[in-house]
Amino acid sequence: MSGLWYDENFQDDTRLGLRAIRTHFSGRSEYQKVEIFETKRFGRVLAIDEIFMTSERDEYFYHEMLVHPALTCHADPKRVLVIGGGDGGTVREVLRHNVDKVVMIEIDELVVRASQEHLPTIGTAWDDPRLEVRFDDGIKYVCESDDEKYDIVLLDGTDPVGPGEVLFEKRFYEGCKRMLKPGGVFALQSETVFLFEDVFVETQQKLRELFAQVHPYFGPVPIYASGQWSWTMASDSRAPADADVSRIEALEAHTKYYCRDIHKGAFAMPNHVRKRLAAL
Amino acid sequence: MSGLWYDENFQDDTRLGLRAIRTHFSGRSEYQKVEIFETKRFGRVLAIDEIFMTSERDEYFYHEMLVHPALTCHADPKRVLVIGGGDGGTVREVLRHNVDKVVMIEIDELVVRASQEHLPTIGTAWDDPRLEVRFDDGIKYVCESDDEKYDIVLLDGTDPVGPGEVLFEKRFYEGCKRMLKPGGVFALQSETVFLFEDVFVETQQKLRELFAQVHPYFGPVPIYASGQWSWTMASDSRAPADADVSRIEALEAHTKYYCRDIHKGAFAMPNHVRKRLAAL
User: Fold this and answer.
1) Reported confidence tier of residue A2, pLDDT bands at 50, 70, 90
2) Of A174, A200, A255, B176, which has the fewest CB atoms closer than 10 Å, so is most exposed?
């Protein structure tokens, strides 16, 4: 076995390291460095600019939790927009629902091409005829597009550092809201509270200025910094309690993490988070 | 700043590294190596045999979650036994309740002495007159002692490797049950499902053979391998829904993580865990 470790180094004081057995892909687009390598514990791992994005073994936490709360809370989601999500896990989970059309806008074609070739266990739905993949700027799209609106907008984006910063700006969330039909639901990853508490709280604040219902929820993602993650569901009309329980039950045949109990439990707020959000 | 990293190496394929600013304590007892060092992100960190045990910044997750579900579910906990817990965080949380007596049995005096001197923000209750600390073998104690029984037994132990293995044996859980009064509640850490799923499931099985009510629950512990952890509450008469809500509310003045919502939400079982336990 190789003696090489691949470390994600967080602010030069904390690191998560995975022993790299071999490299499957290494390339650079105009946007970023894209690597896929093999590990024993996590299977194949996708890293972008040396940050772990997903892995074969733990991807279900992130993808199930980004997708299913929003879709099960919508009354009848037919058209879904995914911004980012180049590894294909998010659209795979969306396509488990009875949807008509999924548009995925990913800025970096290299992420999709590398994932299609080297992460086949994650992106199992690339050939679904309901899916349309466009290589384009998601921010420009939501702010300017005249396309038909969507029932669901999912933001499967990166951390608020460098090019990802704009994904945490209010004008971008306004664009996401602009793309929603009445009764629509927006969901996004909203970072780890443990390491990015201020970013998390500011995100909640910006979303509250735009949506009547804003509900963060929490779950594990072992390969992400701190191992705990948050997502947020925002809507003008739909709340967690509006979930269609029979649709959640049907998903339970496929999901590893998400289920009826988790749908309820994940919205439980840690005491100090509850207090900070109550003070907003 | 120092260029030294302290890595917890999990089965030689995954590691969590913390940059060590300086060492506060390093010693070896007849049982194990004990180290306390300073980090930027986690404050002071206690490591035993190169496994992170707790840190100033994230200790509240583990200690609140081990202690409060069991104590709030008991009708009127007065006598509490803590096995292990040498850093002092568990007894600190126990002593927030209206208890008469807490006995802590820790096998390694060095852990307590080092923590008392170098982890003062964690062990803030060492001088409480209700606390009695004994340096003794907790396993022998629960299996053989003729002492008065307890309302609560808390197992604040280590991983099931090497000397910690016995903490996952059925005869030890029988001893813990033996020390409970009628209406008593036993709680223990039950490892990370992500990395130790079989140990977790076997623990549930052993406890189910001994207790009428066995309820695992889940939460984050950023400094532990995978970042997600589980604990289990076991009792012949008390279940999570028996919690005294007014006592949880009173705790919310102090706790950072545990609260009414988390008490309910933490017992939500991931879908694949639910399926495995249903098949037992």
Assistant:
1) low
2) A174
Out of B156, B159, B198, B242, pick the active-site residue.
B156
State how far residue B33 is from chain A, nearest Cα, in angstroms.
Answer: 22
A100 φ, ψ (degrees, to nearest 5): -95, -35
CB proximity list for A85: less than 8 A, separation 6 or greater: A91, A104, A106, A154, A156
CA distance linking residue A27 with residue B163, whole number of Å: 46
Residues 6 or more apart whose CB falls under 8 angstroms from that of A268 comprise A218, B261, B262, B264, B265, B266
Which residue type sits at B90? T
CATH topology of domain A5-55: Spermidine Synthase; Chain: A, domain 2 (2.30.140)
| Cβ-based neighbour number of residue A233 at 10 Å | 25
CATH of domain B59-278: 3.40.50.150
Q: Is the pTM of this model over 0.90?
A: yes
User: Are the beta carbons of A199 and A168 closer than 8 angstroms?
Assistant: yes
User: What would the pLDDT profile of A54-67 be if each residue is shown by its tens digit?
Assistant: 999 999 999 999 99
CB contact under 8 A, B257 and A269: no
Contact A271 B265 (CB under 8 A): no
For the cut 90, the answer to whether the pLDDT of residue A273 exceeds it is yes
Lowest-confidence segment of A65-69, A169-173, B33-37, B172-176 by average pLDDT: A169-173
In this predicted structure, the answer to whether residue A167 has a pLDDT above a threshold of 90 is: no
C-alpha distance from residue B205 to each of A245, A247, B277 (Å): 29, 31, 8
Amino acid at A164: G
Tell me which residue has tokens 């939400």. B265
Domain map of chain B by residue range?
5-55, 59-278
User: Quick check: A4 contacting B, CB < 8 Å?
Assistant: no
**How far apart, in whole angstroms, are the C-alpha atoms of residue A55 and residue B267?**
26
Q: Is any Cβ of chain A less than 8 angstroms from the Cβ of B22?
A: no
Predicted confidence band at B158 (pLDDT cuts at 50, 70, 90)?
confident
Quick check: is A198 catalytic? no
Those residues with Cβ within 8 angstroms of residue A239's Cβ, 6 or more apart along the chain or in another chain: A73, A213, A215
Residue A244, both tokens: 């269609």
Please give the full DSSP string across B122-165, using - where no structure is assigned. Answer: T---TT-TTEEEEES-HHHHHHH--S--EEEEEEE---SSGGGG
Residues 38-57 of chain B with CB under 8 A from chain A are 39-42
